[in-house]
Design brief:
It holds the Pfam family SBP_bac_1. It contains 18 helices and 13 strands. The chain is an alpha+beta fold.
Length: 454
C-alpha cells in the first residue's frame, strides 16, 4: 500500500493506542518472562463444538469465499457455528480496536503482520505454539520463514498466516520491449534498477515517465533496507542507519530531478489503488505494487484501449541478497476467547484443508501451505497472470526472505511520518540529510511512546 492507502489506517492506529491500553488481558507472555504452562484448554485440545466468532476484512468477492470456507468448516464439524463479522480493511481494524478496549474481541480476528504487535503487547492474543505442540494446529506445510511472520516481539507465535503477499515491480512489458530495455534481469541490484530506468527514460515517448515517485513508497524502502542487510527495526527503534536512508532518498531525488519519475504534483493526483496507478493506466513504465495486483492492473490497462501487457518481477537485490519481504495475513485467537478448541480447529482447517484452499484460491495473497500452492499452480484452468503471481511468490519464498517484526504503533509512527518526510524533500526542497534526521527523531519518539503504553 502506498502512503495514501495508509492515511486512514494511520489515524486508526493512533486511536487504537488509547483504546487498547485499557484492554490489558493477562494471557500473553512478555519479553524476558518464562513461558507459562497453558491454562486448561488453551493448548487447543478439547471438544470442538458450540459457537465461535470470526472477523475479517475484504471486498465482496473475498467475503464470498471466506464465508464458503467457514461453511465447509461447519459441515466438517457438526455442532459448530461460526458467527461472522466482516468489513473493509480500515473499518475492520477500527472495530477490532473498539472490541479490544471492551474485552469483546472475536475469538478469531483476522490479522496482518504489520498490525500484529499492537495486540500482542497488550496481551490480547493467545500464544499459538502450545496448540501446535499439542497437534491441535498443523503447520508442517507452511515454510518456517513464512510462519515466523506471525510472531510477536517476544518470539511467540500469535497468528497463523494463510495468505502471503509481497511487493513486486509492476512493469509495462510491452513498452519495455518496444523501447529496447526489456525487463530488469533476475538478481538485478538497486543500482541496476536506477540505470535501467534512466536508459528507459531516454527512449520513452514524450509525456511518459519511467517511474512513479518511489521515494514516497514505504514498501520500496523496506525492500532497500532488507537488501542492504540492515534491519528495519530493532525492538521499538528504527534498526537501520540514517546514512542508508540518505543514500536511498538521494537516488530517488537524482531520478526525480532528471525527469525519470513523475512530478510530486502528479504523484499526489495518482489514484491510491495499486491496480489503478499510472503503470496500469499506461502513463509510466514501472512502480512497486502488490504481486496480487497484477490481474486487476492488467484489466485497467486493457480498459484504456492501448493494449500492451503488464508483468511483475521481484524487487531489486543488494549486498544481503533479495530485498523482498513477505506481508502475511491470517487468524489469531483472542485471549478472551471462550471456545479455544473450536477456534484452534478453525485455524487448522484454514491451514490444512484441501477443499478450503481450493475454494479460497489465494484470494488474500498466495496460499502459504506449500502442497496447496503446488496444487493451484498445477491447475491448467488458472489464468496466466494469476499463475505468474503465485510462481513469483514461490521464487521469493524459496530465497528465505528476512522476517520483519513490526513494533506496536508501526502504522501511525512509521508509514505516515515517512510519507511526510519525503514530501518535504520533493515538494518543499528540504535537504535530504535534514529530512532523514527529522524522520528518525519523530519515528523513534513515537515508537518509544507506543512501547511505554504497553
Amino acid at each position: 500500500m502506498n502512503r495514501k492507502h495508509m492515511v486512514r489506517l494511520a489515524a486508526t492506529s493512533v486511536a487504537a493506542a488509547s483504546l487498547i491500553a485499557a484492554a490489558g488481558c493477562s494471557s500473553g507472555t512478555r519479553v524476558g518472562e518464562e513461558n507459562p504452562t497453558p491454562a486448561e484448554g488453551q493448548d487447543g485440545t478439547g471438544e470442538v463444538t458450540g459457537s465461535v466468532r470470526a472477523a475479517w476484512w475484504g471486498s465482496a468477492p473475498r467475503h464470498e469465499v471466506t464465508n464458503a470456507v467457514f461453511d465447509l468448516f461447519e459441515e466438517a464439524n457438526d455442532g459448530v457455528t461460526v458467527e461472522r463479522e466482516f468489513a473493509d480493511f480500515g473499518a475492520h481494524f477500527e472495530r477490532l480496536n473498539v472490541q479490544a478496549s471492551s474485552g469483546n474481541m472475536p475469538c478469531l480476528p483476522q490479522l496482518q503482520g504489520r498490525q500484529l504487535n499492537d495486540y500482542t503487547t497488550r496481551d490480547l492474543l493467545l500464544p499459538l505454539d502450545p496448540m501446535i505442540e499439542s497437534g491441535a494446529i498443523d503447520v508442517s506445510d507452511i515454510p518456517a520463514e513464512v510462519l515466523d511472520t506471525g510472531r510477536g516481539l517476544d518470539g511467540e507465535l500469535y497468528m497463523i498466516p494463510y495468505g502471503a503477499a509481497y511487493d513486486a515491480l509492476l512493469v509495462n512489458e510491452s513498452v519495455a520491449e518496444e523501447i529496447g530495455v526489456g525487463l530488469p534481469p533476475e538478481g538485478y541490484t538497486w543500482e541496476d534498477f536506477f540505470d535501467w530506468a534512466a536508459q528507459a527514460q531516454a527512449e520513452l515517448p514524450d509525456g511518459m515517465n519511467a517511474l512513479n515517485l518511489g521515494g514516497s513508497r514505504p514498501n520500496f524502502l523496506i525492500s532497500y533496507v532488507a537488501a542492504s542487510g540492515e534491519s528495519l527495526f530493532e525492538g521499538s527503534e528504527l534498526g537501520f542507519s540514517q546514512e542508508l536512508l540518505v543514500e536511498y532518498w538521494s537516488q530517488w531525488e537524482e531520478a526525480r530531478t532528471e525527469g525519470v519519475t513523475i512530478t510530486p504534483e502528479e504523484d499526489a493526483e495518482m489514484p491510491s489503488a495499486p491496480d489503478q496507478n499510472y503503470v496500469a493506466q499506461g502513463r509510466t513504465l514501472a512502480d512497486t505494487a502488490p504481486g496480487n495486483a497484477l490481474v486487476n492492473a492488467q484489466a485497467t490497462l486493457d480498459g484504456t484501449g492501448d493494449g500492451g501487457a503488464l508483468t511483475t518481477v521481484a524487487l531489486p537485490s543488494g549486498p544481503a541478497g533479495s530485498g523482498n519481504v513477505l506481508f502475511t495475513s491470517g487468524f489469531g485467537i483472542a485471549a478472551s476467547c471462550d471456545n479455544v478448541p473450536s477456534a484452534a480447529a478453525a485455524i487448522d482447517f484454514w491451514a490444512t484443508d484441501d477443499e478450503a484452499a481450493a475454494v479460497f484460491a489465494s484470494n488474500n495473497g498466495a496460499v502459504t501451505n506449500t502442497s496447496h500452492l503446488e496444487e493451484q499452480l498445477a491447475d491448467s484452468d488458472m489464468p496466466e497472470l494469476q499463475a505468474h503471481s503465485l510462481e513469483l511468490y514461490g521464487q521469493i519464498a524459496a530465497n528465505e526472505p528476512p522476517t520483519v517484526v513490526y513494533p506496536p504503533g508501526y502504522q501511525a509512527a512509521f508509514e505516515d511520518a515517512y510519507g511526510r518526510a519525503y514530501e518535504s524533500i520533493a515538494f518543499g526542497g528540504t535537504d535530504v540529510q535534514e529530512a532523514a534526521e527529522a524522520f528518525f527523531t519523530e519515528v523513534n519518539a513515537s515508537l518509544a511512546d507506543a512501547a511505554q503504553e504497553e
